[in-house]
């Protein structure tokens, strides 16, 4: 992935999935790849051998779709970038360094305010459940939280007020046990030109990927689930993506 691409977000295609797409095959795939919460917590993408700790986030680039911050922790801080302890989701806006905390609890999302926050136009002053497709306002920053599929706690957090994340990305993928890249309206990342689904899921070796057909990893054809290694391009029949490490903001 070129550095020029990293420095600018690509267009995120929204609402382009085929009308009437069913959930049958996706539901089956999610059941097949979803692992138990306890195992997921134990295995949480521990592929950062240098630091010895779990990896909290990556950058996910999907060809023809855009770039996404792939967040892997159950609790994330949101705020302005910079400082000795930058937030997990850094937004270039007039926010405090630690403006809010977004937590995933038993499949739901809870927002805890440290600065001015609203959910669907209502100010909050304590931990508050965030409904699906809710608008979150952090000062002048408007965000939207969506859970595309009822069987997955993974959600997509998009910025709707013209602000940008640091590093730049089109949206933030809040990954629970698994996430789907595909053409259906229930996909977490809509890839309208694809005919197959790719499913990212957590495993003992970190992030893994499976698809309905064979995958090509760094130019090599591979059958079955593959380990997602940062910097290696993964291609399916009609899609391609790459996961990269995130530089310190």
| Beginning-to-end CA distance, first to last residue | 19 Å
How many whole angstroms does the radius of gyration measure?
Answer: 17 Å
Largest sheet entry: 12 strands, mixed
Order of helices and strands: HHHEEEEEEEEEEEEEEEEEEEEEE
Overall pLDDT confidence: 81
Outline, from the CA principal axes? globular
Q: How much β-strand is present in the residues?
A: 35-45%
According to DSSP, the number of beta strands is 22
User: Ranges with pLDDT <50 over ≥5 residues?
Assistant: 1-29, 31-53
**Category from helices, strands and their pairing:** mainly beta
Instruction: Report helical residue fraction.
Output: under 10%
Lateral arrangement of strands in the main beta sheet: 8-7-10-11-12-13-2-1-22-21-18-19
């Amino acid at each position: 992935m070129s550095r020029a691409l990293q420095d600018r977000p690509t267009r995120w295609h929204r609402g382009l999935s085929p009308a009437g797409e069913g959930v049958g095959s996706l539901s089956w795939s999610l059941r097949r790849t979803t692992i138990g919460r306890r195992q997921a917590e134990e295995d949480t993408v521990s592929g950062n051998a240098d630091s010895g700790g779990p990896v909290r986030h990556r950058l996910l680039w999907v060809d023809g779709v855009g770039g996404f911050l792939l967040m892997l922790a159950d609790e994330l801080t949101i705020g302005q970038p910079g400082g000795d302890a930058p937030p997990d989701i850094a937004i270039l806006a007039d926010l405090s360094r630690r403006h809010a905390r977004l937590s995933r609890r038993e499949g739901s999302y809870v927002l805890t305010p440290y600065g001015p926050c609203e959910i669907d136009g209502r100010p909050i002053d304590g931990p508050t459940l965030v409904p699906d497709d809710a608008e979150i306002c952090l000062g002048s920053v408007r965000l939207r939280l969506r859970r595309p599929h009822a069987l997955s706690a993974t959600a997509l957090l998009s910025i709707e007020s013209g602000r940008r994340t640091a590093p730049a990305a089109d949206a933030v993928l809040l990954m629970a046990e698994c996430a789907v890249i595909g053409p259906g309206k229930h996909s977490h990342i809509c890839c309208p030109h694809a005919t197959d689904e790719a499913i990212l899921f957590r495993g003992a070796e970190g992030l893994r990927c499976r698809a309905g057909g064979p995958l090509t990893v760094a130019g090599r054809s591979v059958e079955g689930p593959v380990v997602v290694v940062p910097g290696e391009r993964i291609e399916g029949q009609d899609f391609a993506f790459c996961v990269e490490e995130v530089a310190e903001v």
